[in-house]
Amino acid sequence: xxxxxxxxxxxxxxxxxxxxxxxxxxxxxxxxxxxxxxxxxxxxxxxxxxxxxxxxxxxxxxxxxxxxxxxxxxxxxxxxxxxxxxxxxxxxxxxxxxxxxxxxxxxxxxxxxxxxxxxxxxxxxxxxxxxxxxxxxxxxxxxxxxxxxxxxxxxxxxxxxxxxxxxxxxxxxxxxxxxxxxxxxxxxxxxxxxxxxxxxxxx
Length: 203
What we know:
CATH class: Alpha Beta
CATH architecture: 3-Layer(aba) Sandwich
Mean pLDDT: 96
Distance between the termini: 17 Å
Number of strands: 8
């Protein structure tokens, strides 16, 4: 895999300026990657987020990972998912403004929940991956069909995204999406990042 060429890239979401890392590899395909819960230490440097980013980069995508409002050097404050959905829409708009026409969303834990809310509220993207959607922790009750969803990955030992609960949601979200369970993984993919890399790399 070639070395990262990420560069600092800030953008505006509402009244706030957010910090991001941008790797402009493709003029056609891009991926926005979102991080776990900021109130529990989640940010764009999370190792699972970086693993997801590397997977998209290896497939030739431009990537944008960023800190939600109130996280790291991003302005603002935590907004219980509502303002964070606006942040996702702003990140997608940035890629579109750069001329990228095919955009994927990928989120881990809280980031997967925020992405799902944004798509359910009308954000149009061309593909969507959720890693450990936190169905046992956050309320997915208002989230219905997610037509772009094509991949869900979780861990067999994940008590925040338990496979059985995730499977129950698939019919509502997107019955045709692929669900992968990494049996030895917990919610943090401790010791299992290489397995996650391998699963993400499969088409």
